[in-house]
Design goal:
Arc Repressor Mutant, subunit A; D-Maltodextrin-Binding Protein, domain 2; globular
């Protein structure tokens, strides 16, 4: 097979191996077959006449040629994704599948009612809901619509700020009955707090309110926001959460009104190539209308 004859699937396998660091990791990440990835890699190396990886104890390390090919393969991947978006943007049907990605909190607490109403109104539209706190790449069709807490910087995406969610500090009533309710910042800092493990968001918010603490200040730590909230509700300590959710939870009560937390922006993001596709536009309108009322 000559250099001009290998197909795109070989480059896709190469990209997966390069990003994952090994054949086995690439197979696990993409649900593929390790033998198939290995066969694609050998075919690509045969076409180029040189190895693309060196074997190291931790897996595969790119050779000098591999590094050069990676940059070109990434450009080809981006171009192919844009072509796919252009083709998808020509679909004029008000039916079919729309993939939505949202944080686990938004997906669990805010979207079920919105999507239930949408299914009644638009039975021809099917929804794939990706509940994840990782940013999906809309340009590679990992999702058609994203609900994000930050504005994307890509020029190929349309972003609409649809809501600003109020945040507050909460603790379980059972915990407060035992330790007392804080009336001053000093009282508040004497309580237990539930924090994050790897994320420094809470540390930065506390610093903005004049409380300089380290990770060790939190006796319990968990980055999963739903589990973190469950720990607060169980009486493990003080934690922050969206007021639209927490204010209706009888297990907790809001405390420390003297602490000012910033509002959490919600951005509705769609690839520009898909914004006029009828089913995507319809789902986008439903999400924007309902979430703006939170």
């Amino acid at each position: 097979m000559g250099i001009h004859e290998f197909d795109w699937s070989l480059l896709q396998s190469f990209l997966r191996i390069a990003r994952a660091g090994s054949l086995s990791a690439a197979a696990r990440a993409h649900g593929g077959s390790q033998p198939t990835l290995g066969r694609h890699l050998r075919a690509l190396e045969a076409a180029l006449g040189q190895p693309l990886f060196d074997r190291v104890p931790t897996g595969q390390r790119l050779t000098e040629l591999g590094v050069q090919l990676l940059a070109h393969a990434q450009q080809m991947e981006t171009a192919a994704a844009k072509l796919e978006l252009v083709a998808a943007g020509a679909d004029a049907r008000l039916e079919g599948t729309v993939r939505i990605t949202a944080s686990r909190v938004v997906a669990q607490y805010h979207l079920p009612k919105v999507l239930a109403d949408l299914r009644v109104q638009e039975p021809g539209i099917q929804i794939d809901l990706i509940a994840s706190d990782l940013p999906d790449n809309l340009l590679f069709r990992e999702a058609d619509i994203a609900l994000r807490m930050f504005r994307p910087e890509s020029g190929d995406l349309t972003a609409q700020r649809i809501a600003d969610l109020s945040l507050g500090l909460y603790a379980a009533r059972s915990y407060l009955d035992r330790v007392g309710r804080p009336d001053t910042p000093k009282d508040l800092m004497a309580l237990d707090f539930v924090g994050y493990d790897q994320s420094d968001i809470i540390l930065r918010l506390m610093a903005e309110n004049g409380f300089q603490v380290t990770r060790d200040f939190f006796a319990l730590r968990c980055d999963d926001q739903i589990v973190n909230w469950a720990l607060v509700c169980a009486g493990c300590g003080v934690g922050g959460f969206q007021s639209a959710i927490a204010d209706h939870d009888p297990r907790v009560e809001r405390i420390a009104p003297f602490i000012q937390l910033p509002r959490l922006p919600v951005w509705l993001v769609v690839p520009q190539a898909l914004r006029h596709v009828p089913r995507v536009a319809r789902v986008r309108q439903a999400l924007a209308s309902c979430l703006a009322k939170i």
